[in-house]
Amino acid sequence: MTASLEGRSAIVTGAGRGIGRAIAEQLAAAGASVIVADVGASIGGDGADPAPAREVAGKIGKRAIAFTESVASPGVAKQLVEIAVKNFGGIDIVVNNAAILRDAFVFRADPRDWDAVIRNNLSAPFYLINAASAVMRDQGKSGRGGTTYDWGRIVNIVSSAGLYGNLGQSAYASAKAGLFGLTRVAAMDLQRAAITVNAVAPFARTRVTDIIQPANEAQKTYKERALKIGAHHVANLVTALCTPAAKGVTGQLLGVRSREVFLFGQPRPVGKLDVENPDTLAADLIARLGAKFTDMTTDLEAFNTEPLV
Question: What are phi and psi of 210, to 5 degrees?
Fold first, then answer.
């Protein structure tokens, strides 16, 4: 993929560490100019430290800019896009990777933590997509990159927790599930403008896996396996989705675990019940469709197998 993104401009949020850093570095290696956006907060969203973003931007070189403000407001998201346009001539790639965690069982959760997670993990990606996609559409009319603009790429980093669920992660899972819903709608809204929008659920060593406190042997094994997986595999997939060869991939939900790439199915009806008697509806659901019910497997259980490293 060397030089396959020459001339493109990218914004990667949460790019100061882990998966975001690997993505920013890989996009730059493929020729893109990159804004390394990371406020430098803790995994819980507290504090701020400009050092990680500045260190990554410095390592990438002159085609990188560090941005250290939180994108969780419409005004800042618009400002970030304007910086890309001013410095790099436009915006072509957006990777929404930044996320925080404030886990608690749903009956103990603090509503303020819910609001913070939703704002950072779902509202912030919307603000950035909203600001960037408007510019991308205008670029299509002005001929950026050629007579037909097909550089527009948006990749949202979601989570298997938002697909399967996981204990104590009501806010995080809800935000990530919502981010996939946003992915689908944005892909539909932007299809005519030849801008692709996809979601990627990563499995790799991150601050999230580092802080897992195993409650049983199964979770201990999961953590041991997760710690083997480098973030560069996620960066490989995200970069591939941003190349010209991926212009036909949009609205998809993909997973990546080391050298394995998964294409997830998306919710569609798997059965139908014609209601004959409302009084027996619950019993009929179980009797006629119960065999097709989705089980209560968590994402940690579903992917607790040896990765292909």
Answer: -60, -35
